[in-house]
Design goal:
By secondary structure, the chain is an alpha/beta fold. It has twelve helices and eight strands.
Length: about 260
């Protein structure tokens, strides 16, 4: 029996546009709710939310009841962290702050078993192999791992062609908030200069045969990047949606 098929990776290769949402509430219950919303994918965020390996595992379990594919963002591109999230069952990993092809190559290796990679071989005790009940897991897992790297500063943009040339990188996600701040537009990812760089980079990613991705929480900007070729597109953040809806309700009825 082989490792489960990564349908998210399959659909990216097929050229499908996939609509997603960011999960930052770090809660199994809210993850289960988002799984019913109809998104193609959601990010279990380990960088800017209070997640640890156990809470990320619990959210993966909650999402199994839905067709929504979980993408786990690690806080930093370290081999030990990637090993942990793969062992708890993540098949798609998003790594922030990738600036060079050398970084990307090391991340590819972290996602693969030896001899091609450096992933620790502990599958018999891992949730990813259903605790040893998938006998061919080690032999088949590499092909089902999807690696998304996040380019979000000027250094990464300058090296984008070299990063795109790394075999094993399935997609490149542009981080608009960090990129705009690095470009001198703190808190303003809608600055025309930033949008021009993002649109040009989305096209370069697509031309290289990789999947381009981005997050936007404003409808106008979301449409801009959709039309600009973003293939995996996050259109909201759970915490911001909750904050906006609750504040609007309070303001409406307290007036």
């Amino acid at each position: 029996m082989p490792a489960p098929t990564n349908t998210f990776k399959q659909r990216l290769k097929a050229g499908d546009r996939l609509i997603g949402c960011w999960m930052t509430l770090a809660d199994i219950y809210s993850a289960e709710v988002l799984g019913t919303a109809g998104f193609d994918w959601v990010v279990v965020d380990g960088e800017h939310s209070p997640n640890d390996i156990r809470s990320m595992r619990d959210q993966l379990i909650a999402l199994e009841a839905s067709d929504t594919h979980p993408v786990v963002r690690v806080p930093i591109g370290e081999t030990r962290l990637i090993k942990q999230v793969l062992d708890i069952g993540a098949q798609t990993v998003l790594v922030p702050m990738v600036e060079t092809a050398e970084q990307a190559q090391e991340l590819v290796r972290a996602c693969r078993y030896p001899p091609e990679g450096t992933r620790g071989v502990g599958a018999s005790a891992a949730r990813a192999s259903r605790f040893g009940s998938i006998p061919d897991y080690i032999a088949t897992a590499d092909d089902q791992i999807c690696l998304l790297v996040q380019v979000e500063n000027r250094a990464g943009i300058a090296n984008i062609d070299e990063i795109l040339a790394v075999e094993g990188v399935d997609g490149v996600f542009i981080g608009p908030a960090d990129l705009s701040t690095d470009m001198g537009h703190q808190g303003n990812s809608s600055a025309p200069e930033v949008e021009q760089v993002i649109l040009a980079t989305l096209q370069r990613i697509k031309d290289a045969g990789k999947a381009p991705g981005i997050l936007s929480t404003k409808d106008e900007t979301t449409a801009l990047y959709r039309d600009g070729g973003a293939q995996f597109l996050a259109v909201g953040i759970d915490l911001l949606m909750l904050a906006r809806a609750t504040r609007e309700a309070a303001a409406k009825w307290k007036t």
